[in-house]
Amino acid sequence: MEVVVDINKTDKQGGEETMDRTQQHHHPIIAKIKTQILNKKMILVALIPIIILGGMMIFLSSPAGQILLHNSGNSLPEITIERIEFQDSKIIAFLRNTGTTDVIIAQADINDRIQSAAIEPGKTLSRLASAKVIIPYSWNPGEPYEIGITTSDGIRFHKSVEAAALTPTPNLEQVSFFAIIGTFVGVVPVMIGLLWFPFIKRLSTNKYTFFLSLTAGLLLFLGIDALVEANKIAAQDVAGVFNGQMLIAMITIVSFLALLYISNKLVERATTATTSSVKSSKLLQSSSSSLASAATDSRFEGRVEERNQQELQHRKQSSSSLFTIAFMIAIGIGLHNLGEGLAIGAAVLLGNITFGTFLIVGFTLHNTTEGLAIVAPIAKSNSKVMLRRLVMMGIIAGAPAIVGVWIGGFLYSPIAAIIFLSVGAGAIFQVIYCIISWMKNNNNNIDVTKAREGRKSAWLNPSLIVGFIVGMIIMYITSLMVSS
Amino acid sequence: MLRLQLVLISTVAIAILTLVFAISSSFSMYSSNTTNYDSRKSVSSSGDNYRIKAATLNTPHGVYQTTGDILDPTNQVIDDRNKIVIDPMKYLRTFNYGRVSTLPNGTILREFTLIATDNKVMEISPGVFYNVWTFNGTVPGPTIRATEGDLVRINFINNGSKPHSLHTHGIHPAEMDGSIDMVGPHGGKFVYEFYAKPFGVFPYHCHMQPLEEHISHGLYGVYIVDPKKPRPVADEMVMMMNGYDTDNDKENNFYTVNGIPYYYMHHPIQIQKDKLIRVYLVNMLEFDPINNFHLHANMYQLYRSGTSLTPSEYTDMVTMSQGERGILEFTYNYTGNYMFHAHKTEFAEKGWMGLFLVKDKNELDKMVNDSNNNNNFAQRNTATTAKQTLPGGHGGSSRY
Q1: What's the distance, CA A352 to chain centroid?
Q2: Are A209 and A387 in contact, with CB atoms under 8 Å apart?
Q3: What is the pLDDT of residue A220?
Q4: Which residues of chain B register pLDDT less than 70?
Q5: Would you say B328 and B238 are in contact if contact means Cβ atoms under 8 Å apart?
Q6: Three-state secondary structure call for residue A19
Q7: Would you say A213 and A468 are in contact if contact means Cβ atoms under 8 Å apart?
Q8: What are the Cα distances from residue B385, in Å, to B101, B155, B275, B329, B367?
Q9: Residues whose CB falls within 8 Å of the CB of residue B230, separated by 6 or more in sequence, listed in order
Q10: Are A417 and A343 in contact (CB under 8 A)?
């Protein structure tokens, strides 16, 4: 409070100089006014560095500042060819000025041979501005091309395309073709994977732990894969000015933390609901022993309707954290599949891919494991899993692949690709974290209730370690089928 | 169901956000600026008074209507004389005979002044600016010409920031060779003096180290020595084959004959049907081991190095390494457009190609009269061409 008084004494507007301290302490209105004044001062104090900073920037950009910074090196022009499209008797290059100065585009070439071209909206590009260069050219499908752009200072920038292919235009035929590809790459394999649900449900605890950690292994592979892919795009297609690699790191961490927070909130909410219900204590017990008893549980989701609705409701509540994990996995995989679809679509757009049966089969095999990852955590929940909900999770996980192929194939942007992949990676890492912490808690529960196996660290469980390793290996091997 | 909704909502929100981002970043490329540029005007104008007008791009691959600018070095003209590295049409038929005087012993003295600079940034192809090093402000430098036995005196001034020299091919004493002794920068002077011999066509160039750098930046030109008994009257022209490595990666970005890529494609060299054409051809191309000259629909008599009056070959194709040169003589018997270009296709497609436009005598005469009142730069060039065609050779001499 002394600080408050001191500040007020120097304040012209404050009429409280005559007040003594006891008055201040006991008069709520005056105290409130004082707080407001204090807040104003706080804002002022916070603004001072910003004002000084602004002044400095104005000075540095003024003629005087320019003289001061003179001779501090050449600012070289830089442009990035972000995308190349092949249209009927035309090649179109999309440019962006990614340097620090204005750039004037002088000439265009194909395979290092000068060509007549047009540039829209104009040949002068201010910083970060974009333009498209239209080069009338009778290109040959399947052949590699290098597009070069020469700026007014004679520097040539170029980008290569491995095999020219007509750039897809969003007509009905192309949209449905992409939808089919997305379905085969995303939805179908996830749905197939979900069919493992009854199998997983009947497994013994140890085997279940194995499959759960196998899931974590699969996901870890996918997460790293997303980061590697994003990094590749950042290095190849994103101009240095956008600082692609740091964008990946930032978005991955942000999405990890955000999803961690959201999923914790969801679990909390569900738990609160459970404990407030009448049969809470009974449910908690059944929950702790659910993993053990589930081994002999022969019921499956097809007969959901026959069950007592009330009981079902409670069971669902008790295993809410498992469902949350499953949903988070579905979302994480969905984002991953969005990135995967994006990559496929972009590859079509950029002429880097030829669709063969082998490639599609490869993706299908590779992604079937994703369905397994979704069903593994919910398989041991004691509640009945509605088919509807399972299908919904499959769609959440798989359908984004279709959207991804559309976006990638029709309007590819390397920055957007990086963002998708990074969000996906963050989501996947969050899911892995959830699975591991869930397994740890449940192993402890088993230890306490059964007192059979003695105290073990969750990490020393051999099924867990083996599952993790096998998961990674499966993903690596199936990934070989899709890497070109 | 609440948490399911939450999960779904957050998923949808993330999806929409990313979708919006992707679409906006893609569509920003398509967004068109309301300021449109008239292509021709933008080449010449220094940035104001643009008219809004759609431009048409005509190519062998099709026609494209654009609201933007045209990037077309095969058809575009650099019509700002202050920026252009050379006026190829003027250079083509300009032979400098120097300030002529007769010495007491009867020898003809020809005095020339060559000034080297290395600070100019000039337009070497439409829209492309390059730091050229020049003799008398152009690349190639002026063509100097003498008759066998004349005394040639070249007052060489180095106004550049680096040491330069003048090395002339031909026969002369060591101290006049300009290969070892540098002439200092910022106003250094040296007088090169030698007798013009033998007759032939030669390059001259700076010989300072690093030689590659000095030559690739443009310090070279043509030096012609006529035999005492003149060659037959002809429409004479000089052609210097060169290149520009504008991004300094030791590979040429542009190839030209007489300094500007594609120049003679949009400004065909007008010649008269049935008239003898004589081309003094020199190759100073840096980096690439060879260069060549191919003439369409015709054959030429080739005098290698121009040191003989007897042709060494009858061909339509000569290949030269750097520093090689020759005299080409030919006559067209049909009117029309005829290409000439490097038959190293890469060079041709980076600018080294041109056209001869063969016309009847009447047609050429008419054209000269028509264009006398025209101030257009391009047409003035054409007029010069025609005028100089008629006297048949030593027309455009000027003093240096």
Answers
A1: 24
A2: no
A3: 85
A4: 1-54, 79, 369-400
A5: no
A6: coil
A7: yes
A8: 29, 30, 14, 18, 11
A9: none
A10: yes
pLDDT at A4: 43
| Sign of CA pseudo-dihedral B226, B227, B233, B234 | negative
Contact A415 B127 (CB under 8 A): no
Best probe of the A interface among B71, B122, B128, B216, by most A CBs < 10 A, is: B71
Kindly state the tokens that stand for B387: 């005028």
A79-161 belongs to which homologous superfamily? Immunoglobulins (2.60.40.10)
Q: Is some CB atom of chain A closer than 8 A to the CB atom of B290?
A: no
Pick the residue of B16, B20, B29 with the most A CBs within 10 A to test the interface with A by mutation.
B29
Mean pLDDT, consecutive 10-residue stretches, chain A (484 aa), reads 42 46 62 80 84 85 71 73 88 88 92 91 88 92 91 91 81 85 86 83 78 80 83 80 84 86 71 48 37 37 43 50 75 78 72 59 71 76 71 87 85 77 79 75 51 51 82 82 62
Closest CA to B223 of B155, B159, B306: B306
* Beta pairing, strands B69-71 & B99-102: unpaired
User: Is B61 within 8 Å of A112 when comparing Cβ atoms?
Assistant: no
H helix or E strand, kind and range, residue A298: none
Q: What is the pLDDT of residues B35-90, one digit of tens each?
A: 333 333 333 333 333 444 468 888 888 888 888 888 988 888 776 777 899 999 99
CATH 2.60.40.10 boundaries in chain A? 79-161
d(CA B364, CA B270): 8
